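Let us practice reading a record.
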Amino acid sequence: MENYISIKKIEDELDFVKLAITTKNIDSKSKEDLINTFNKDDFNLDNLTSNIQIHSDIVNIVNEENIGCKKEGDALITNLREVPLLVFTADCVPIAIIDKKNKAIGAVHAGWRGTYSKIVKNTIDLMKKEYNTNPDDLICVIGPSIGPCCYEVSKDLVEKFNTILTNMEETFYIIKEEKYYLDLWSINEYILKTCGVKVKNIINLNICTSCNSDKFHSYRVHEKTNKRIGLMLQVK
């Protein structure tokens, strides 16, 4: 098994960014693991920037003055070259947002709380403000995370989502044997589409971390593991 996966569409069509999603072979919270996996031509780890993740809707801007600084929040945006953005997940949804026209990027950590508070919309809205981003120009990647096949939740949580998704065309949960399973993928896809992102530019890897716990860290399967998948995104 490789230490990370890459996305063919991104590599083939966008020569100004590098995107990697780490596997179970490494712990993305370990700087040493990242240094042993990636060289300077891949990512400039001297400028690596991540958040203190708190399951919020907070999006932080990375500029020349705060490269490498850790703030509370769950998404990051930048247009700086050679400044890798890193979000940590282990069942929650990692989302990469790439503005191919203005060469700006966003990295999002969306658990159910972040998804409910539409953190991916907040990220795009801030990119519009800071970088003049047009959603037509965005390519978005939904990375490995727990899927609707495995994400059992309470009926109360499903009903909580019902309050903000009443006009959603797709079903955002399934019921199996009187148990409710939430589909964070379809919800985040829906939010991206309502932001104006083209359907053809939403790349959902459809990789469930629970089903594929031999390849990716899973908080539920691996007994509340402290190890994390890393989605790392950089403007070259």
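A brief commentary: The longest helix spans residues 119-131.
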